[in-house]
């Protein structure tokens, strides 16, 4: 039996343009799921100076403004928190304290290449958070499609379950996608062995069977069996391309996060990090 939808949702806001879309998304999700909405604003601590108290007052004003906007959107009470320090660390710590089941946050208007070079607060939260993180971007909400990237991991299973519940809440369709990396291209494979296509077909069939099992497990939540797709290629590229299909705008992408350390993430990268940096639409990332 799949877990219920998270009862506590933490909305992280900085008052920027992207935060308004995240607020709208969080309020809609909480309204439909009957979940509590909590809101946090983190102001960065710089060297103490004559303007420190002024900046604190500005942060308090911003928080109050965002609480009023969230309460208006939700039609109910929203509890706010003002934290001081590094945003990613403070947001993740508060999520632990509240035992939040989902963090929702916006994304600054950086292009894919800028996000690739600079990273972002949302990326820091994803890497530290104890719960799933929904990063809202793309200018429109709600999405009409949800694409779940599945790699057979526990994080991917959790992403699929939560994504299915979000799809039901929003009336969106859901599709499961798995990428099968092929090291040799077709021409090279043909030169090496005429029979190499046979084991490739066998491997693809096994992936399809495993993905079909994931799809069947979600039928009880969705009320239908989601479509599945297994494609050759690099995982992030396959998932991103699938999310861009159709005329309804970018889909919500849901993926799991593997427990790589900081050095391994720098050295190897990760599918979730690539998708977070390159996706034009919203992204849901679940820890293992």
Automatic annotation (TrEMBL):
Query: A Pfam family in this protein?
Result: Usp
Q: What positions does the domain UspA occupy?
A: 7-137, 145-287
Alphabetical list of InterPro entries matching this protein: Rossmann-like_a/b/a_fold, Universal_stress_UspA, UspA
The record's similarity note reads: Belongs to the universal stress protein A family.
Could you tell me what this protein is called? Universal stress protein
